[in-house]
Design goal:
Layout lengths: L2 H21 L7 H8 L6 H9 L3 H19 L4 H7 L5 H12 L3 H7 L2 H9 L11 E6 L2 E9 L5 H14 L8 E6 L12 E7 L13 E5 L2 E9 L5 H16 L8 E5 L12 E8 L2
Antiparallel strand pairs: 1-6, 2-4, 2-5, 3-4, 3-7, 6-8, 7-8
Helix pairs in contact: 1-2, 1-9, 8-10
C-alpha cells in the first residue's frame, strides 16, 4: 500500500467513526462497535485514533455529547431529563455529574446563569451603552486562503466537519503548531431553515498554497477588509446570544454598516485540551469602508 492510498484509507475509516458518533449520540457507543465501523483491530485502533486526533475515542464521545447538551440548555426549553436522554446519558444523575465536572455548574443552573445569559440580559436592558461590558474592535483583515470542508445543516453540528478536516490534515502530517482554525458562516440561522444552513470548517496553514488538495477538502478565500471583532469566552454552544447582541445592540449604535459577505469565527484554543468555559472565540462581522 503506497503512502497516498494509506492516508486515504485511514481518513475514510476514521471519518466513518466520527460520523457515527455525531449521528448517534443518544445511542450506546460501544468502543468495539466503533472499531468494527473503522474496520480496524479492536486492540490497536484506539491508539491510531488517539494518535491522529489527539484525544481518545471516549473523550470525543464525551465532548460531542456535552456540546449538544449545552446547546439545548442555552437555546431551547427542552426538559433537562429529556436532554440527558437525547445525549446518551443513562439517567439525570449521571448527566448532572458529568456536565458539572466540565461546565462548572449543574445543567439547571447553567441554563439560568451560563455565559449566554450575559448577552440575553444586555439585549433586554434599556439604555445599554454601545459596547456594554464587551469590547468590539475594528480590524483590517488581510485576505486568507483556507483549506475547508463544507457543512450543511445546524451550525451546532459543524464540529463534525472540523473533526473530519483535522483528521484529513493529521494523516497527511499537516498539523502545524501555529495552524489557525476558522469557521465561515454563509447563512443566517434566523432567516433560513436548519437544513438550508451552509458553513465551512477551515484551517489556515503557512503552507496552504502548496498543499495538494482532494475532496472533500477545497480552498476557500476569506476576502480582505474591515471587520468588527468580538472576543467571546465560553462554550461554543452559547454563541448565538453573542451574535444577537453584536447585530442587535452593538451594530445599530456603532455608526457602522455591515458589508455583504459571510461572518467568520476564529477559535483561539483547542476544545480537545480546554474546558468549555475557557474557550476563546473571535467573531468577525464584515463592515463597509
Amino acid at each position: 500500500m503506497n503512502k497516498l492510498h494509506a492516508q486515504r484509507s485511514y481518513q475514510d475509516r476514521l471519518t466513518r467513526v466520527q460520523a457515527h458518533i455525531h449521528d448517534h449520540i443518544s445511542d450506546e457507543l460501544d468502543l468495539n462497535r466503533l472499531a468494527e465501523i473503522a474496520c480496524m483491530s479492536p486492540t490497536h485502533w484506539h491508539r491510531i485514533y488517539h494518535g491522529v486526533f489527539g484525544e481518545t475515542v471516549a473523550a470525543t464521545v464525551k465532548r460531542v455529547r456535552l456540546h449538544s447538551a449545552a446547546g439545548m440548555l442555552a437555546n431551547s426549553a427542552i426538559q433537562i431529563d429529556k436532554i440527558a436522554k437525547r445525549c446518551g446519558y443513562p439517567n439525570l444523575q449521571s448527566f448532572t455529574r458529568i456536565f458539572s465536572d466540565s461546565y462548572g455548574m449543574p445543567p439547571a443552573r447553567y441554563r439560568k446563569e451560563g455565559s449566554h445569559r450575559q448577552f440575553h440580559d444586555a439585549l433586554e436592558e434599556q439604555g445599554e451603552s454601545v459596547c456594554g461590558p464587551w469590547t468590539v474592535e475594528i480590524r483590517d483583515v488581510p485576505e486568507m486562503s483556507l483549506l475547508t470542508i463544507d457543512h450543511h445543516g445546524s451550525f451546532m453540528q459543524i464540529g463534525e466537519a472540523f473533526d473530519r478536516l483535522f483528521g484529513w490534515l493529521a494523516v497527511r502530517d499537516l498539523i502545524e503548531p501555529n495552524v489557525r482554525l476558522i469557521g465561515v458562516y454563509h447563512t443566517d440561522p434566523d432567516a433560513f431553515a436548519e437544513n438550508d444552513l451552509f458553513s465551512k470548517a477551515g484551517a489556515l496553514l503557512d503552507q496552504t498554497e502548496s498543499v495538494t488538495i482532494e475532496a472533500p477538502v477545497e480552498r476557500t478565500v476569506v476576502v480582505a477588509g474591515r471587520y468588527a471583532c468580538l472576543r467571546y469566552k465560553g462554550p461554543y454552544a452559547d454563541m448565538k446570544s453573542a451574535y444577537l447582541w453584536l447585530f442587535g445592540n452593538w451594530l445599530p449604535q456603532s455608526g457602522e454598516e455591515v458589508r455583504e459577505g459571510p461572518v467568520f469565527e476564529e477559535y483561539l484554543n483547542n476544545p480537545r485540551e480546554t474546558a468549555p468555559t475557557e474557550l476563546l472565540t473571535e467573531i468577525y462581522m464584515p463592515l463597509e469602508g
